Predict the 3D structure of the following.
Amino acid sequence: MAAIRLSKAALRKLELSGPHKRQAVKRKPKRSKSQPLPEVYQAGGNGSWVSFTLPVLTKSPNGGVGISRQGMLIRAKQIKAQRRISCDLTKARLPPNWNDGTVQYRINLCRLSAGHLDGHENLQMSQKHVVDGVADALGFADDSDRALMWSYQQDTCKRGWHGVRVTILFIKRVLGVVE
């Protein structure tokens, strides 16, 4: 009987192709979910302004969830959580005596994400629930009050991170003149 010589590749193929051995399947590593940016808190002298980062992931309302009942319920939970987090963290970050003689508030919301939204509708609508939460924290029932001036920006950050930077400027009345 003559010995059969097989190459190493052929031997490997025979070993892996048998019914008793299962081939190892290489799986792609799961992409980790986006995580909030580390918080940065800054405050101006005499409590004239405050800036902090909210750990909120904002998305365009024009895409994503369909019109199914379950999809709407999931979206409603996300909206409620965004508003509650925005309100609670804003209240916690306000400087002491922030409401003494304040006439107007200039609030800048900067969306931090790896993606980009168009500035005329999607950016503002993605911030709607953050706006409601900040207005609630400042004691306003409606975010369209004349004492609140809103501006919106967006900045890019590393993929896999997100947040909203809130900057509040407190404009006070000094001797009858708005500062």
The helical segments are 8-17, 69-93, 122-126, 128-137. The first helix runs from residue 8 to 17.
